[in-house]
Write a structure and sequence with these properties.
Layout (H helix, E strand, L loop, with lengths): L1 H9 L3 H5 L2 H9 L1 H20 L8 H15 L8 E2 L3 E3 L10 H11 L7 E2 L4 E2 L4 H11 L3 E5 L2 H12 L4 E5 L5 E2 L3 E2 H7 L3 E5 L7 H7 L4 E7 L15 H11 L3 E6 L17 H6 L4 E5 L10 E5 L1 H9 L2 H4 L4 H13 L6 H4 L1 H6 L3 H15 L5 E13 L2 E16 L4 H9 L5 E2 L1 E3 L2 E5 L8 H11 L5
Helix pairs in contact: 3-4, 4-5, 6-15, 7-15, 8-13, 18-20
Bound molecules: pyridoxal-5'-phosphate.
Length: 464
């Protein structure tokens, strides 16, 4: 008790801390930031003492803590990280990394007035949706297109327009949940359409759909099972078959394609995902997909299909609530323009640049990081052959063979190293496997190698 009282009394006073040269200097740059920092640090010291700890109460120690606190407080909450997980489309880390062209386009639009809803030729009001519609139609072969906030919004808008107060027929094998917050049955509820489940989890036959058709049926809904695969004794009804059946019964086919690749992944040695063009060729009346999965662009929901349906969606008041913003639209247009030159895709779109890296390239990239890490005392590291993933609910069963730099330290545990790297200025997110910390060379950008070496020096105490 006495010790605690004594310690509490020895906590430096606010004025004393503020009088320290370094703190004083910081005050000149941002007065209230620093006084807030001092208060936070002193409060934390008090709590530590009450918990029975004996923190550093010297003026120098406290000043150092204050400067660190001020630095932390000034950091953006939403900020870049280094992805060492090997998951290319990591939903928690922002999904697709956008290309330089997209970032530049967003910045140009952000810093200037722009043509968002203005037609320069006619000198009057234009449509925000016009900027990408032709481009999407050209790339996919669709008659019409509309973009909204994300694919969840797209599905809601499609169902709310085409099946409101009516019934949709869906296979039991396709009632997907994506990332915990997108569930096909719940989206249907939101759009006031009822769901008629047909078939079983593993098998659905054409007759299951056909026998379910009733007076309230509005459409067949096909959902791509993006993030899981049903294997073994299975059967699903293809889009082509649904389209054929739809024609006979005068019912449209709606296809929630999910990741929406515009190129065949097979060219990168990855299992194919159905492409948007295939969905169009199969004859789906309306197809929707995300902008930030295998398209490699910003978060968006893209709807393509027959003009009469897309026109009806454009008139739906829901479209206004789900509308895409100007920065996203600019980034999306810039990304889509790259697809006009297929040879540029793997070079310019980061998602494909990463997916197309060969094992040889990954290994030599790892070698270059190893050389940088030599200067970190006590750190042993080696190249290790590992498996990464595409992520973003795409090609779920496909593992991507890859090379990672595997690290361990003689005095800092792997867990400590992992968590300390997470608190660096630009957090470094690794993955622990077999008591080593892995940084996957597919997803770590090489321009950060010097920075990573510096972080490791700091978090292992080698910098002091
Ligand atoms: C990812 C996905 C969605 C949700 O798309 P968001 O762009 O994340 O809103 C919906 N349906 C399927 C099949 C998906 O794969």
């Amino acid at each position: 008790m006495e010790i605690k009282k004594e310690l509490l009394r020895s906590i430096p006073k606010v004025d004393e801390v503020l009088a320290q040269p370094q703190v004083k200097k910081a005050m000149e740059e941002g007065r209230s930031q620093v006084t807030d920092g001092v208060r936070q640090v002193l409060d934390a010291l008090r709590e530590q003492i009450l918990r029975g700890e004996e923190p550093d109460l010297t003026l120098e120690g406290v000043s150092r803590a204050v400067l660190q606190q001020v630095e932390e407080n000034s950091r953006m909450s939403l900020r870049p990280v280094i992805n060492g997980t090997g998951i290319v489309l990591h939903t928690n880390l922002g999904r697709a990394v956008m290309c330089r062209e997209a970032a530049q386009a967003a910045m140009d639009v952000a810093e200037n007035y722009n043509t968002l809803e203005y037609d320069c030729e006619k000198g009057r009001r234009g449509s925000r949706y016009s900027h990408v519609e032709d481009l999407i139609c050209r790339l996919t072969g669709a008659e019409a297109a509309l973009v909204v906030n994300n694919n969840a919004a797209a599905v809601m808008l499609v169902l709310g327009t085409m099946a409101k107060n009516k019934q949709l027929i869906v296979s039991r094998g396709e009632l997907v949940e994506i990332g915990g917050s997108f569930r096909v049955p719940e989206i249907m509820e939101q759009s006031n359409s009822t769901l008629l489940e047909v078939g079983t989890t593993n098998k659905t036959h054409p007759s299951d759909y056909e026998n379910a058709i009733g007076p309230d049926t509005a459409a067949f809904l096909k959902v791509h099972t993006s993030n899981y695969k049903i294997m073994g004794f299975t059967e699903e009804v293809s889009v082509e078959e649904l389209v054929e059946m739809g024609k006979r019964h005068d019912l449209p086919v709606i296809y929630d394609l999910g990741s929406g690749a515009l190129v065949d992944l097979a060219q990168f040695g990855i299992e194919s995902e159905p492409t948007v063009q295939q969905a169009m060729a199969a004859g789906a009346d309306v197809t929707s997909f995300s902008g930030d999965k295998l398209l490699g662009g910003p978060q968006a929901g893209i709807i393509i299909g027959k003009k009469k349906y897309v026109d009806a969606m454009k008139k739906n008041p829901l479209t206004r609530a789900l509308r895409i913003d100007k920065l996203t639209l600019a980034a999306l247009e810039a990304t889509l323009r790259i697809y006009l030159e297929p040879d540029e895709i793997a070079r310019k779109i980061p998602t494909y640049r990463m997916l197309s890296m060969s094992m040889d390239e990954l290994r030599s990239k790892g070698g270059r990081l190893l050389r940088r890490l030599k200067k970190v005392p006590g750190l042993s590291c080696a190249l290790s052959q590992e498996e990464g993933q595409v992520g973003g609910g795409s090609v779920p069963t496909q593992m991507l063979p890859t090379w990672a730099v595997a690290m361990e330290h003689e005095s800092v545990t792997v867990d400590q190293m992992e968590s300390r790297l997470r608190s660096c200025r630009i957090p470094v997110i690794g993955r622990i496997s077999k008591d080593r910390l892995l940084l996957d060379m597919r997803t770590v950008q090489e321009e950060y190698f010097g920075y990573i070496a510096q972080c490791l020096l700091e978090v292992t105490g080698g910098a002091q």
